[in-house]
UniProtKB/TrEMBL annotation:
One of its GO terms (cellular component) is cytoplasm. One of its GO terms (biological process) is regulation of translational fidelity. The gene is tsaC. This is L-threonylcarbamoyladenylate synthase. Belongs to the SUA5 family. Residues 6-200 form the YrdC-like domain. Keywords: ATP-binding, Cytoplasm, Nucleotide-binding, Nucleotidyltransferase, Transferase, tRNA processing. InterPro entries: DHBP_synth_RibB-like_a/b_dom, Sua5-like_dom, TC-AMP_synthase_SUA5. Its EC number is 2.7.7.87. It is found in: Cytoplasm. The keyword RNA-binding does not apply.
Length: 214
């Protein structure tokens, strides 16, 4: 890793495709990620973040096609995905067998979104699949809105692991992380449980015709 200056998009994609871990910008915050289907790399992300395996990481994709083999997209209201993807809305959906167990919660669901950040999307495309996209900080620490905000110990641990920091691309807008919702088809086709309110507010969801439950 070339300091916080980082590496090119192509180099980062090669790192991820080879089972590595990268720090990269998203539409909200900097994220620490790997190829979601690589169980060893996913375990490395948990170790770097010092995160409990009982707290599944969020996933990010360039387009919904990257998610078809990972989750049941038809379990979500299609108007929800059409309205808020790409963008900072993470949706909890039934997982398929291709995901490592640590990315699936006790109810058999994984949290996914399609990113609106051009560089993050390009990285997922060039890597060849959806990426984990948990905030780039140790568990309990402050998320990084700029590279200079990133935890120095985390950057050192990433370097020692052979990971990389992606150079270029638009900076995250900062502020709130992605909003996390769970569709509740048993209640109604428009019902959502809001697990974390973030960049997409409850008011925005309600204005789009969804019933939000906390």
């Amino acid at each position: 890793m070339e300091g916080t200056g980082g590496v090119s998009l192509d180099s980062a994609a090669a790192c991820l495709a080879g089972g590595g871990v990268a720090l990269f910008p998203t539409e909200t915050l900097y994220a620490l990620g790997c190829l979601a289907t690589n169980a060893r790399a996913v375990a490395d992300v948990y170790r770097l973040k010092r995160r409990s395996l009982e707290r599944p990481l969020l996933l990010l994709a360039a387009h919904s096609g990257q998610l078809y083999d990972l989750v049941a997209l038809d379990a979500a209201p299609q108007e929800l995905l059409a309205r808020f993807w790409p963008g900072p809305l993470t949706v909890l959906l039934p997982a398929r067998g291709s995901l490592p167990e640590s990315l699936v919660n006790a109810d058999g669901k994984a949290a996914v979104r399609v990113t609106s950040h051009a560089l993050a999307a390009a990285l997922a495309l060039r890597t060849g699949g959806a990426l984990t996209a948990s905030s780039a900080n140790r568990s309990g620490g402050m998320p990084a809105r700029a590279l200079e905000d990133a935890d120095g110990e985390l950057l050192t641990a990433l370097k020692n692991l052979g990971g990389c920091v992606v150079r270029g691309g638009g900076q995250p807008i900062g502020g709130a992380p992605s909003t996390i919702v769970e569709p509740l088809p048993a209640v109604s086709g428009k019902a959502l449980r809001v697990l974390r309110e973030g960049a997409v507010s409850v008011d925005m969801l309600t204005a789009a015709g969804f019933v939000c439950l906390c």
